[in-house]
Amino acid sequence: MNKTVKLLATTGVIGSCGGAYFVVQPLLSTNERMTIADFNKNGVWKAIFLTHKEDVNFKSVFSLTGSEDINTASVSIRDKCKQLVKDNYKELVKKWCVVPVPKTIETRLYLDEYELSSEEDYKSIWDSHKNNPLFESVITNGEFNSNIAANGDFSKVKSWCEETFKKPVNDADLKNSKALCLKGSVGFK
């Protein structure tokens, strides 16, 4: 082989190796302190939706109208993020498809893969704890009312949970919301 052919062959091999290097590079570098959301989990996609749902650009990228329920929107977001990762749209992935920092109790619960209560769960919690002073203190924000069991209904629990979900993350409300606001909650022990 002459020198030109050897040089071209060597350049081709080096180019192939360099190309392979870029193909196997992770989408996010380790020093970016971000984690791409797990495609096998559901809660993280709900948390992403809650974090960005008011952002017009987010709604545009994910073709959201704002009227979707959280379950439908989270599936749509997950599927679009899979495609963005596959197509190597690094900037969009970094902006919209990473685990968010939880700003509310609700987002924290979804990131921890909890499922929020249904009407039946709220009814069950109410029936089990309506005569418990600790329960009463929590759902009335410390305002004791000796008639709560007689005059109240499960909607007090539901209202408390919905209000608490919007609060910034704090240990006391997070603990109480885990006891009262999750599917299969057992209440206070």
Automatic annotation (TrEMBL):
It comes from the Bacteria. This is Lipoprotein. It comes from Mycoplasma haemocanis (strain Illinois).
